[in-house]
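Quick one:
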Amino acid sequence: MTTITNSKAEAPEPLGLPHSHIALFLAKLRAAGYSERTLKKKRSVADAFIKWSQRNGSELYQLNEDCVTAFLGRSPERHIARERFEKSALRLLLAYLRRDAGVPGPLPPPCPSPVDELVCRYVDYLRKDRGLTENSILVYVPFVRDLLRDQVSRAGDLSVKAFDAATIRSFLLSHVRERSGEYRRLLATSLRSFFRFLFLRGDLPVDFSLSVPTVRKCQKPGVPAFLSPEEIDQVLAATDQSTTTGRRDYAILLLLARLGLRAGEIVTLELNDIRWRIGEIVIRGKGRVIESLPLPADVGAALAQYLREDRSIREGRRVFRRVYAPPVGLTGPAAVGHIVRLSLTRAGVQRSGRGAAHLFRHGLGTQMIRKGASLAEISQVLRHRSLNTTAIYAQVSFEALRTVARPWPVIRGAR
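Output:
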């Protein structure tokens, strides 16, 4: 009799997502600073997700990224902005269920596949031995995974010793048809890195990275796009420093303009990296190289104003954070590029193409060479690992020479 009474209390959780979790999830977002208007939109997404999961018979612990993808593809009509908002809301919901509500996620497979094991070791090599950033790893890994899956589909199992030069080139050629030059270059770079890893690990007796053809990246002739000193002043002057967003953006723009920082270096900047007493700033550059640069007075003043008026030490160690909820650090280099593009538009400065943040970096290099700095000095300031990268600024000098060069002397004035 006792077991019959307790069986009701021990019944499994009902299908779908309980509304109690939704209420607690929204309360957490409200505490993080989300507006009521945004919370209302997120609730509508969560409610739709509940109904969808119930119709599909999904248990609470089974909800994962694959369920989100299936939910987003429920309608044949794709509205990109709406889909992006739904995806963001449901990712927050899944994170809440796992971290805060204690709902266990789907059980992993009992043992990872040989492909997964090898990819994990390769990622560990890229991260620890090569010092690559997470963004670079995310570029390399899908190409390598495709290579290994192709090998398994052809041979029936994963045997790295079955690779040879002909197989590698066949895979490369079959995957570059109707692809952009940048895709081809990244594919070749990823394969070269992977086969060098296999050789260093002793899995292959031959370094097949030498068998991967080089895909050259075509450089457009001429000087790279940059901002002139007048345009930089125009952009800075158009930034409203009376608002939280304006003070943050002004400090970012000054770091780009005065120090030529990369967008990723601004994102990873932390409070301890600003050494106020000695007037230095620590930069975490490419390849996880850490360097110190002088902190100009105007940059320091802008940083101090932003930190004093708009940031709390309790908000984490990253210097630059989102203005709107959730108050976390900038998500990546694309966030800095977005800030720059908005600033250019506000100032009426038109520049097309990718790499908006690099316009300031190129502008600094161009100013230096026009003032007589050597390529070695520019390379040191911009922290290039090769003078070949700095050589693009040498074209600035040729452009300047055209304005003062005299016509070539010819006989009797003939042309």
